[in-house]
Amino acid sequence: RRGEIEGPDLVIAGECEDEEDSGPDVKPVRVLSDFAIYDPKHSNEMVLLSAIEEDDGVDRLFEAEGIVSAYYANGVDEGEDDNVDEDGDKTQPVQKMVYLAAILRYTFDYMEAEG
Predict the structure, then answer these.
(1) CB under 8 Å to 2, separation ≥6 — which residues?
(2) What would the pLDDT profile of 81-100 be if each residue is shown by its tens digit?
(3) Is the predicted pLDDT of residue 27 greater than 70, yes or no?
(4) How many of the other CB atoms lie within 10 Å of CB of 99?
(5) CA distances (Å), origin 14, targets 63, 92, 105, 112
(6) What is the mean pLDDT of residues 68-81?
(7) Which of these, 30, 59, 64, 67, could form a disulfide with 100 (CB 3.0-4.6 Å)?
(8) Helix/strand/coil (H, E, C) string of 15-37?
(9) How far apart are CA 20 and CA 29, in angstroms?
(10) Strand duo 63-70 + 4-5: pairing
(11) Taking Cα atoms as reference points, which of 6, 2, 1 lies closest to residue 69?
């Protein structure tokens, strides 16, 4: 079973539209974790992320599925108080299984995760 299809109507909890960052060409930055990348042109063969940048002479298409959550540029959710349960304990952000088609590029955040 596939996750929700990534597209312009996909809403990830914690994301908010900033008026100065909105527009038809603006794409949201999101965090993808616990993911698999595969090539549907070759029987969903699992592929390495680095294969996106390599020309191995094979006609490939890169798709992925994984857990997506909102990305916070300053590392802190402006609505952080919303991520607290009734006991005052911090809760995990809402995550969603998402299907990504046509992966063209990627970036890494090499900062160590807290916890």
Answers:
(1) 65, 99
(2) 455 556 666 666 667 899 98
(3) yes
(4) 16
(5) 24, 11, 24, 21
(6) 65
(7) 64
(8) CCCCHHHCCCCCCCCEEEEEEEE
(9) 15
(10) unpaired
(11) 6
Cβ within 8 Å of residue 6, ≥6 positions away? 68, 98, 99, 100, 101
- Phi, psi values for residue 94, rounded to 5°: -70, 135
pTM higher than 0.70 for the full model?
no
Handedness of CA 67, 48, 110, 104 (dihedral sign): negative
63-70, strands of its sheet edge to edge: 4-5, 96-100, 63-70, 30-39, 45-46
Q: Is 49 left (phi over 0), alpha (psi -120 to 50) or beta?
A: alpha
Residue with tokens 């960052």: 21
